[in-house]
Input
Amino acid sequence: MYSDSDLDSAVAAGALTPASAAALRAYVSRARQSPMVDEEQFRLITGFNDIFVSIAGILFLTGCAWAGGSVTPWLGAALVAVSSWGMAEYFTAKRRMALPSIIFLLAFVGGVFAAFGTFLVPDGAVSENDRVGAALLALSAAIAVGGAWLHWRRFMVPITIAAGAAAAAGMLFLLLLVANPDAEKIMMPIILAAGLGIFAFAMRWDMSDRERITRRSDVAFWLHLLAAPMIVHPVFVMLGLTAGDASVGVAGVVLAIYLALGAVALIIDRRALMVSALAYVLAAMGALFKEFGAVSLNVAITALVIGSALLLLSAFWHDVRAWLVQMLPEGLRTRLPVTQTAIPQPAS
Output
């Protein structure tokens, strides 16, 4: 399997002409009976060797963390960060292996944060009024953001931007704790605001590649995947759904919110929002059926209703999306991913 990034690299290296790459993309689009822009492609594995290297890398990093941590915690984390970068020099820069690249990137950013965090705050805990500890952990998160930026400049793994954004969100929350120790009480609104900010950032990447044929689309995918739970979870927590308050009224609100999220997902052509909210909708639907007497079959009925609805939406995704986008102002339509209801046919 070859990704769009591989095709771009082949064009840059002269192995393929731009016309040949475009023809290949068009052929794959016709063969799959789905426009490439709607596929939300991202490369995870290219073969079993990706899994093999990933397992070996995780074992090696575990050994580094254990051996170094037996001396002092920050040393174990530092060994993980250094080893992750070193393995990325071969498996990412030279071999271009997708899954190992993701694992080594996450291990590097996490290792940088953990190394500085455990060095600056040895006990690793920050009490409610420990502003100094929170400030030091915020500094560690800022260093992790810088590490993610350096990693991006060297390897350009698409998930790197999302990892840096997650570290930046953590830094923001820690800085709020420094400014106001009671910030934990408003944690959900803060997470929601951070999620909306990351969502807007993802849209900037998305709008720069409306055809979704470059690495920028992959970056946007991971940012959307990060932003979705940060948006969805706080909303449903504040509604009381996670506390077991699944009354008919709350369930109705949850379904209305899910429909709104579904409309947004269709318009921007990203499914992450719908997937992130799915567990809450299942709980709400189950509560509705239970309320109306289907106690023994509420789980089965919920699965059938939600599953069939999502399958239908998947089958008619392109047409429903085209209908929704057509109702938007022209200025907004021209910035969204292109719509396509008919699959292009080969030239006669």
In short: Confidence is low (pLDDT under 50) at residues 342-348. The chain has two domains: 54-235, 239-348. The CA atoms of residues 114 and 255 lie 39 Å apart. Residues 131-155 form the longest helix (25 residues).
